[in-house]
Design goal:
By secondary structure, this protein is of the alpha/beta class. Helix content is 46%, strand content 16%. The protein is built from 13 helices and 11 strands. The strands form 4 sheets. The chain has a 5-stranded parallel sheet, with helices on one face. Strands 4-5 form a two-stranded antiparallel ribbon. A hairpin with a 2-residue loop joins strand 10 and strand 11. Helix 8 crosses helix 9. The structure holds adenine. Adenine (ADE) binds next to helix 6.
């Protein structure tokens, strides 16, 4: 297999037509992109928010492709100081797309530089020299900022207000994920039957990144037995080995539910307490595990803490050791 095939980037759809799911969002984006191109203007700044793995980076690259613009990639944690951002902004060319992943992690001092860059395409930096300060303002070429965040609530209101297009990325439907798995299989020249693709989709927590990851592991199990195609039996056997149940819950989810239900009598329990019991970072619990458990209706977040619902209690009964 060639080196590039080990990298998921080649799987990513390049156009809105190729992109499966998020129908309303695609429709809106296609209108905004079409209108901006018609006016020969840059696209307004775009903010994507939602759980990880749903395609925020892919969509930023699609916007670049559809607009015929270069995409410059950056991430919130790597822009530590205003001068880091100034360096990135001063290198932009007209109509570039600047993608900032995890934009909620930008320090406040950096955000402030971003405000005038987004609003007037001006870069204002304060230079201190011999007990006095001077503001240096540089004109920037028009550009589109595409921000992505898993925590829209952590974004400051002034920053949020500067995005003209704000779109939520939702969990995918099972049928959409099955189509993504079939598309991925065809990229790898591998055959998978509809029933197996649907089974992978059902256990992928509404998330394409997880569906593609599971597909590759199931393919490993099939290859190991010299199978030329993925069968339903092989798929079920792989899930047993990987440790993902019929709802897509893994060891950490089950530990979370078990702690909440059996240790704390269904709650309410604070996030930090749960975190120390199950040995996962609070941030990880909030951004990776809880959104899907909430979606399944197994837990609720209340002011007093997390509580487990009847559905969680019933589901735990299907796991023998809980
Ligand atoms: N691969 C990952 N996400 C995808 C999507 N939404 N559509 C098509 N292929 C994908």
């Amino acid at each position: 297999m060639s080196a590039i095939k080990d990298n998921d980037i080649f799987l990513r759809p390049k156009t809105l037509d190729e992109y499966i799911g998020q129908e309303k969002l695609k429709q809106n984006l296609s209108i905004y992109i079409g209108a901006a191109k018609h006016r020969k203007e840059t696209l307004d700044h775009v903010l994507f928010y939602g759980p990880p793995g749903l395609g925020k980076t892919t969509l930023a690259n699609i916007i670049g492709n559809e607009m015929g613009s270069k995409v410059v990639l950056a991430s919130g944690p790597s822009i530590e100081k205003p001068c880091d951002l100034a360096g990135i902004l001063s290198e932009l060319e007209p109509n570039n797309i600047l993608f900032i992943d995890e934009i909620h992690r930008l320090p406040h001092s950096v955000e402030e530089v971003l405000y005038s860059a987004m609003e007037d395409f001006k870069l204002s930096i304060i230079i201190s020299r011999e007990n006095s300060c001077k503001t240096l303002t540089i004109d920037l070429p028009p550009f589109t900022l595409v921000g992505a965040t898993t925590k829209i609530g952590s974004l400051s209101s002034p920053l949020r207000a500067r995005f003209g297009i704000i779109e939520k990325i939702n969990f995918y439907k099972v049928e959409e994920l099955a189509k993504i798995v079939e598309r991925t299989a065809s990229f790898y020249n591998f055959t998978i039957d509809k029933k197996s693709a649907l089974e992978i989709a059902k256990r992928s927590r509404g998330t394409p990144r997880i569906a593609n990851r599971i597909f590759k592991r199931v393919r490993d199990f099939a290859h190991y037995k010299n199978l030329k195609r993925i069968t339903y039996e092989k798929t079920l056997e792989s899930f047993e080995n990987i440790g993902i149940d019929e709802l897509g819950l893994d060891y950490v989810d089950i530990k979370y539910l078990d702690t909440l239900v059996n240790r704390f009598n269904c709650g309410p329990v604070g996030l930090d307490t749960l975190s120390s019991y199950i040995g996962e970072e609070p941030e990880n619990i909030e951004q990776v595990y809880e959104p899907y458990l909430l979606k399944l209706g197994m837990i609720d977040k209340t002011i007093k803490g997390r509580i487990a619902n009847k559905k969680a209690v019933e589901h735990l009964k299907t796991h023998n050791n809980c």
